[in-house]
Amino acid sequence: MILRPQNLPFHCLSFLLALGATFSAKTNVVFIMADDLGWADTTLYGHTTLYETPNLERLAKRGMLFERAYTASPLCSPTRSAVLTGLHPARTGLTAPTCHIAGEPILRPSLKQNTPAHHKLLTLVKPNRLDTKYPNLAKTLKQVGYHTAHFGKWHLGRSPFTALDHGFDVDIPNWYGPGPAGSYVAPWKFPDFKEAYPGEHIEDRMADEIDAYLEKRAEDKKPFFINYWQFSVHGPFNAKADYIESYKGKVDPEDAQNSPTYAAMVKSLDDNVGRVLDQLDELKLSKNTLIFFYSDNGGNMYSQVDGTTPTSNRPLRGGKGNNWDGGVRVPCIAVWPGHIEEGSKSEELVTSTDFYPTILDLLEIPKNESQTFDGFSIRPALEGKPMDNRRIFTYFPHTTKVPDTFPNSAAIYDDEWKLIRLLHNAPNGDHEHWLFHLKKDIGERKEVSKKYPKKVAELSKELDRFLAETGAIYPTPNPNYNPDHASAPKPKKTYSAAQFKKMDKNQNGFITLKEYIGNPVGRNVPAVKKQFERRDRNGDGKLTLVELNR
Questions:
Q1: Where are the beta strands (DSSP E) in 351-400?
Q2: CA-CA distance, 350 to 416, in Å (whole number)?
Q3: Are the beta carbons of 209 and 275 closer than 8 angstroms?
Q4: For 197, phi and psi rounded to 5 degrees?
Q5: Which of 251, 209, 202 is nearest to 35 (CA)?
Q6: What does DSSP assign to residue 369?
Q7: CB 295 within 8 A of CB 273
Q8: Where is 275: in which H helix or E strand?
Q9: Is the pLDDT of residue 39 over 70?
Q10: Phi, psi of 141 (to 5 degrees)
């Protein structure tokens, strides 16, 4: 909880005030956000025996651990935009991780009115940049005298929509992509950012850059906002060789978390959280620094590494790319020495849009009168108080090919209840609703909407209000839909001899499973494997052109 000076004895308060500059200076802010780090990917909640995160535990002991933190979206760019602006992806329309894509900037979503007749719903045109017109945390802190610096992943737009264009004084490595360029371990492929030594790890380099930055701020005494958005643990899946080797003997093949490479990636993530803490301590900045740790979405449980999936979010269902809790429930820590009680925990609901208003509230910085927030200050939770009638929302108006996914959706959380709305998914074109009681059913296996119709009606009404208030644009029924077109068999894809030759990398006249998969990044590898096995009817582990076209 927040420790208020007025609650301290007079002689203690006098002593603290005598410390001088540390307490009279503006509070510094450090926001660390992991990429794709799931709720079960740390030792904070007791759901892993493989991954090691001692520095996250160290951070949590300094402040408050949130047991029920969620993201506004199950994918990265939408969550990042929500953290930075305090606006829900339903309002900005930035709902997909498209911000690295080249081409003309698209700043608002729209519906394709000429969507082909075999689509039941109109197709959504997705924004590919975060509009710079929105007020954001960096701009606000800069306006009141803070130096602002972004380190790591951005993924909210190419120039002129980089971190520098969104109010940051520093942007390292100034990269628009969804992951580190080429590899975590050098050589990298960043166009204007080179490794300092062979085999340098990108997170180690980010910590070096933050070290140097903090030394400058300690010298010039200027308050700072560090936005350290880690590349880890997003693909590509590689790590320090010695770290990978150290985890090979620790893997339990019966455990769903069994990738030594992913475990090594988590270790590098944790190492460099520790590096930041060490430097803050060394420069005597920790006592006057507010720190948040968070992740942009749940763990990736569908890509392929070490012959398995990167991780598992068990006991949660699903993962990155869908609105099950495995895709949106994440680790979260808040630290502010002397203000937030050490070693405390909170069961309050927290979401991506809360951080911006919370930071302004804690630092007593007024928001612009015309500014909108979709989140709330979680100061009561930080004080150990309940946040009564708190409801939060996730929104993902897309369908993906990840396992255990479902159609375009939105969800509302109300205490222990969760209502998922499948947008226009009922046979008659209405919305479909699933209700879960998360305290009794953390794995979302027991759908209870028929048992609690009043709760469904109550939460559905609140979800209607949220979507209307934010002006959410999502796929609606296609007026040109023709079920005959939808049921007509799609023409079977066939491969030409030239295409076969291109896939046959070693030119031996056969295509192996590895050649068939190609680059695994972003692919549903288990599904692709099944395709290969269906075509490989003689089971020899390779395909001819005839088999490929079966």
A1: 391-396
A2: 13
A3: no
A4: -160, 155
A5: 202
A6: T
A7: no
A8: helix 260-282
A9: yes
A10: -65, -35
* Position 525, amino acid: V
Residue 479 has which token pair? 């007026």
Give the predicted TM-score (pTM) of the model. Answer: 0.85
- 3-state SS record for 462-527: HHHHHHHHHCCCCCCECCCCCHHHHHCCCCCCCCCHHHHHHHCCCCCCCEEHHHHHCCCCCCCHHH
Q: How many CB atoms lie within 10 A of CB 147?
A: 19
For the stretch 144-156, pLDDT in tens is 999 999 999 999 9
Between CA 238 and CA 237, with CA 48 as vertex, the angle to 5 degrees is: 10
Query: Residue 107 and residue 339: Cα distance in Å, rounded?
Result: 39
Q: DSSP strand E in 370-416: where?
A: 391-396, 409-414
Report d(CA 163, CA 279) in Å as an integer. Answer: 24
Which residue has tokens 């979507």?
467
Each residue's pLDDT tens digit, 55-112: 999 999 999 999 999 999 999 999 999 999 999 999 999 999 999 999 999 999 999 9
**Rounded Cα gap, residues 301 and 84, in angstroms:** 26
CA distance 428 to 425: 8
**DSSP state at residue 200:** -
CB 34 within 8 A of CB 42: no
Contact 512, 540 (CB under 8 A): no
d(CA 73, CA 470): 15
Rounded CA-CA distance 412/465 in Å is 11
Looking at this protein, which amino acid is placed at residue 458?
Answer: E
Check whether 186 has a pLDDT greater than 60. Answer: yes
Q: Is 532 helix (H, G, I), strand (E, B) or coil?
A: helix
d(CA 226, CA 31): 6
> How many other CB atoms sit within 10 Å of the CB of residue 192?
7
Do 456 and 430 contact (CB within 8 A), yes or no?
A: no
Tokens coding 115:
């969507």
How far apart, in Å, are the Cα atoms of 237 and each of 20, 231, 244, 266, 293? 47, 11, 11, 11, 22
* Residue showing tokens 């009817």: 537
**Residue type for position 75:** L
User: Domains of the chain, with CATH numbers?
Assistant: 5-91+130-386 (3.40.720.10), 395-470 (3.30.1120.10), 492-548 (1.10.238.10)
Burial status of residue 96 (CB atoms within 10 A of its CB: 0-12, 13-18, 19 or more): buried
The single-letter code of the amino acid at 474 is: Y
Q: Which residues contact 14 (CB under 8 A, 6 or more apart)?
A: none
Structure tokens at 480: 């040109």
Indicate the Cα dihedral angle 184, 189, 192, 195, nearest 10°.
Answer: 50
pLDDT in tens, 437-496: 999 999 999 999 999 999 999 999 999 999 999 999 999 999 999 888 765 555 567 788
Q: 99 near 159, Cβ under 8 Å?
A: no
User: What is the spatial distance between Cα 47 and Cα 315, in angstroms, rounded to a whole number?
Assistant: 8
**What CA–CA distance (Å, rounded) separates 257 from 265?**
13
Give CA–CA dist 330/229, Å, rounded: 15
Is 1 exposed, middle or buried (CB count within 10 Å of its CB: 0-12, 13-18, 19+)? Answer: middle
